[in-house]
Amino acid sequence: MTMSTCASSPFDHPKADIILRSADGVDFCVFKLFLTLASPFFETMFELPQPADGTDNDTKDGLPVIPVQEDSKTLDTFLRFCYPSTLAEDPLLESLADILAILGAARKYSLDLIERKVCQALVNPKILEAEPLRCFAIARNARLKHETITAARYTLRQPLIPAWFEEIELITASDLLALLTYHKKCAIAVAPLRADLGWVTNHYGSLNSCKWLVPEVHNPNRPSGGSNDKPTCRCGRSTKLEFILWSSFPVSWWATYMEETFELLRDTPCRDIVKSEAEKTIQKVRGAGCNACSARVKENMEEFSNLLALNVEKATASIELEMPF
Ligand SMILES: [Zn+2]
Questions:
Q1: What is the 211 CA–ligand 1 centroid distance (Å)?
Q2: Is 142 within the bounds of a domain?
Q3: Spacing, Cα 35 to ligand 1 middle (Å)
Q4: For the chain, what percent of residues have pLDDT higher than 90?
């Protein structure tokens, strides 16, 4: 006799009519009906002749025992999906290892509904943001088109050449090459936004509507102190020709933001870098102590970085992940 333990509620019901024994020796007492309703695979499995009661080791307490290859954790999760929600709530799939195991079981047992739920878990933004490459590999391995493409977009937040990750073994060299090509093409598509600042001038229309960006030069000889005087910007001006707007030199910290952000966009062509660099610039400008810039930098850089982020997304939106499904 194999040593086995009993699963916890609701898989310990005294009126259950069959036992599924996990690979690690846990017995799940379940109702055939729920499993049959969830998958035609189980229906076929239960129609196979079962050994008569008490004739060999394949029964326990008079119930037939069916050994399965899944471990108890995986079995517990997918049985909860099979059971009606009044008896067992759908389990949360929050780790990629769980998703991978359940996806495998769902496919093996033709549990279509569960497969769909697992796919939804795979494009949960929380998981995608934390582990885009692992999501990509799992989705690609399972030939899930929408999920693979979504995950590929999230991988743009990471450097072109990724660090090793466990699920890399799930994809082929061709899959990885397709992902790297996609990433590189996105980076190339973003580069012209720096070379041609038409999107900036189009958005603001004129120098007058973005004085924060091209402030008047501070003149120490100009009399000040009048009640209408706003503080003038004492930050330097960029002298780089590439950042000239309406024939004027913009404030230097903005040019620095542009240079540093576009340098990063070459490796990570995504909106997140645009937003996080803007956040750093806001802190930096406030710390520098120019009254004119400090007062308005947050509002203006939020607007500007949203504009740049939108343009980065537009530039990369038409790039396709070239991969057969
Ligand atoms: Zn300033």
A1: 11
A2: yes
A3: 68
A4: 64
Same domain, 286 and 211: yes
The count of domains in the chain is 3
* CA of residue 234 to ligand 1 center, whole Å: 5
Proportion of the chain above pLDDT 70, given as a percent: 92
Expressed in angstroms and rounded, the spacing between residue 301 Cα and the centre of ligand 1 is 13
pLDDT, tens digit, for every residue of 44-61? 888 876 555 544 557 888
Answer yes or no: is 64 within a domain.
yes
Q: Does pTM surpass 0.70? A: yes
Answer whether residue 277 is part of any domain: yes
SS3 for 236-286 is: CECCCHHHCECCECCEHHHHHHHHHHHHHHCCCCCHHHHHHHHHHHHHHHH
How many angstroms separate the alpha carbon of residue 182 from the centre of ligand 1?
39
Q: Do 109 and 211 fall within a single domain?
A: no
- Domain membership flag for residue 84: no
Average pLDDT, the chain: 89
Encode pLDDT of 121-168 as tens digits. Answer: 888 898 999 999 999 999 999 889 999 999 999 999 999 999 999 899
- Ligand 1 centre to CA of 256 (Å) is 13
- What's the 311 CA to ligand 1 centre distance in angstroms? 26
Q: How far apart are the CA of 194 and the centre of ligand 1, in A?
A: 23
> Environment class of residue 33 by beta-carbon count within 10 Å: exposed (0-12), middle (13-18) or buried (19+)?
exposed
Burial of 306 (0-12, 13-18, 19+ CB in 10 A): middle
Q: Give the range of the structural domain holding residue 124, as residue numbers without chain letter.
A: 92-171
Are 199 and 305 within one domain? yes
Q: Which residues surround ligand 1, an ion (CB under 5 A)?
A: 233, 235, 290, 292-293
DSSP, collapsed to helix, strand or coil, labels residue 64 as: strand
